[in-house]
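Subject: for your reference before the review

Hello V.,

The reviewers asked for a structural picture of the protein, and I figured it would be easier to keep everything in one thread rather than splitting it across files. Below is the amino acid sequence we used in the manuscript, unchanged from the supplementary table.
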Amino acid sequence: MVGYLILFIRRNGLKEQNMVHKRAALQATIRTVVGKKVKQLRNQGYLPSSVYGKGMTSISVQMLQKDAEKVFEEAGESALVDLTIEGGETWPILFKNPQYDPREGNLLHVDLHKVNLKEKITAMVPIELVGVSDAVKAGNVLMEITSEVEVEALPTELPEKIIVDISKLVAVDDAILVSDLAIDRKQVEVKTDADQVIVKIAAPKEEIIEEVPVAPVEVEATKQKAPEAEEAEAAAGKSEKKEDKKSEK
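And here is what came back from the structure prediction:
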């Protein structure tokens, strides 16, 4: 059955890597601590969050920090997650507006957008580069211009990521555009401009070393003395010292 499904996908021109995978699950509880006091929650290992959506009042919730970060790392902002509120129902949500600690890099807060599975939404989907470019192996430079694209689709049809194979880039100025992305356009509408460059090959910049002319250093006449003159001055200085000692006696 799995083999037949893969064969069906290949025959219909779809990329296995761009399929929507099984949704991750996350648990949350109602949060009563708000304002500056949420710092206490973080110290206890909880991540403060809020659930919002069309036709509902925003709800303050909290999740275990380690669980939330693990699911967020897998899902990003484009994959659906099943959120279960303790003692309540399960909702499909998307992570939105993550905020990070500037020093530690861990999540400080993230919004949870409850979606209607029957209504299309827009989301930013990340680009993932795979493969090896012969142009890069030859010493040229791979320039990543766009790391994500905006798409519109039903929540269940949003791709978690879009795979871009760079092995087709074989010469300088070869590029992959948004229009080249392997996406099922019947299900997913790409909002980003079709001519936007995703990645391209550029020639390496030659490092130009400029030679700075060194101006000749002018030495004062008093310093331009021959070794013989310096020795004579030294001898004269010694004789003067002897004369001074005789006069003192």
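For the response letter, the relevant points are probably these. DSSP finds five helices and 13 strands in the chain. Confidence is low (pLDDT under 50) at residues 1-17.

Happy to draft the paragraph if you're swamped.

O.
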